[in-house]
Structure formats: C-alpha cells, structure tokens
Amino acid sequence: MNSKERVKKALLRAGLPDRVPIQFDLCRSLSDSFGIKLGIPVNYTTSYYEDVTYRISANELRVAMGSDCVVVGASLPHGHEHPVNENGYIINEFGIVMRPGPIYMEVDKHPMADIKTAKEVLKFPFPDPLADGRYDDAELYIEMYSKEYFIIGDMELTMYDMMQQLVGTEKLLLDMAMGIEYVEPLMDKTKEFALAVGKRLVSMGVDGIWAGDDFGAQNGMIISPKMWRNYFKERYREVYSKIKEINPNVIIMQHCDGAVAPILGDWIEVGMQVFNPVQPNVPGHEPEDLKSKFGDKMSFWGAIDQQQLLPKGSPEEIEADVANKIKILGEGGGYLCSPAHIIQSDTSMENVEAFIAAVMKHGAY
Question: Fewer CB within 10 A of the end CB, N or C, for the chain?
Fold first, then answer.
C-alpha cells in the first residue's frame, strides 16, 4: 500500500489501511536543520500569507522523513516579492504588515482597520488569485508526487481568518455582532478569493482540499454557535459544493483551531469530511467523545499537542500520547496522525523524530 492509498483508505473510512498515515509541517529552522542532517535541499514556496508558507514548503524533506502527504498551494506570482519596510516587517499582497515574532508572524497593521461600508469593500484591491506563476510549484509537486502520495491543496484563511487579518480581531467581532454593513460583503470577497484558489488546485489534481478558519480559543468558541450558523454555515456549504462540482471525489478537509465541538455536527452537515487539527486539551475535544459522536461521519487529522507535549515532553511521553491517540481515534480507520499545528522552533529535532517513530511503531493495524 503506498501513501496515497493509505491516506485515502483511512480518511474515507473504506476499510483499514496497513497503518495509520502521518503528516506534519515544520517551521523554517527545523526544516533547515533536518535538511542539513539528511542532506536534502529544502525548497520554500512563499505563500501570500506567511504561515501558510510552511504548510506548502519542504515537501521533498517531509516525504523523506516519513510523511504520507504532500501539501501544495498558491504562492506569489511571477516577479513579485514581499516588500520589507524600514522596521524589517513584510508587507503581503493584501497590504497586511507583519512583523516576525518569536514563534509566528504577528500582524502589525491591518489595512482595513477603519472600514465601515460595503462600498469600501468593493474599492479595496485584492490580489489576483489566478495570477501568472502562482501555481508553478503546485504543478511541479503534483507532477512529482501524485502517483505515490496524497496531495493536499491548501486554501486556508478561507473567510474569517482573512477578515481578521485585514480588519483586526476586536473590531471585526464587534462589527459582526452589530451587523455593520461591510461585514457580509467582505466575507463574500474573501470567500471568492479562497474559492478561486481551491478550484484551481482541484482542477490540477489534488486529492484533498484544506479550508481553514479559526473559530475556537482554548476554553470555547470565539463567536457563538448561533453567529457561526448565521454567517458561515451556508457559505461553507457553498464553498464545499463548488469544490465538489469540479471533482466529486476530492476530500473536504477543514482546519479550525480551538474548542469548536458545538459546531462540528453543523460542519459535517454542510460537507466537511475531515476535521483538523483536533486541538487537544480543550473542552469538548476529548478523543473518546469525538470518536464516539462523530467517528462514523467524519475523519480526524491531528490531535498531537504541539503547545506543551512536543516542545517540553520527553520522547517517552510523546510515544505514549501518540499510542493513545492512535488507539482511540484510529480505531476502525478514520485518522491521519499529525501535530495540531506547524511544529515550531521550540521543539527539538529529537522530539520531532520521536513523534514520527511513535506513529510508525504504534500505527500498524
């Protein structure tokens, strides 16, 4: 069984694969270090949003380390580089100014921070999602790996996350609550940008599409389930259905950080097939509960803690947690084992290797 067959069988819950499949993302410093250790040149595909760069880069390295998946997405168009201001902060294609943080990039300036009207949404220039050269790397990796590996097409920052970066979290949440006139037009504009990316990737032959919006925090949802259903539920139904029109067999994979158990049933209803990242240690995400409530309706991708366990745990503790998650979430199939986010520089190479080894050791059916 090759990696593509393994992942498809697991995520479609179409019988048991030979073992639980594995996927992981590495930050730049870990990618560089493993590239040197393994003698593999690391290629970076710069995304229009910085964090996504590390989803869609280092594919040669990750498959050599054991990943069953290759992740591709939209990059910068031909001839474009992110400008850097006098403070060393990058300015992306949307005009979002981002400063390097200790772990992630952090937004320094929201270009729509003063927005009030729908007319301003129409005037605000979005980049061309289909610009020349934006999919060159995706085409290359699909050609290289599509026969052996499961290809994931990344269209994260689908709606809410992009709006948050453009407007600012506090303003956006208040304006959503008050129903300010620009909110839904901006929601639709971000949706159409992401959908154009997703449709292009599906037409190129990816096996799964990875949408992404973070509606959860450590202790609960950022917005109420009622607000999510009012603003996002039917828009997600539309996104998924338009993706499926191009290829009915493409697998719909949804990223959402935080504690979002109250809306998982709704998300399944509109077409989500795989839930990522199954953030651990938050209310409602106990593996036994998720598997018993939803395991016959969707598959799980993630669940390994990269906040505390991977950076601070021992290899033995990592192995025990991986074994436990595989036992519960992997029962009968339906599990792609992965850290709950990009593994960052606070995690040692030894612990990354311990995670991969644990999946290989305990994942066999």
Answer: N
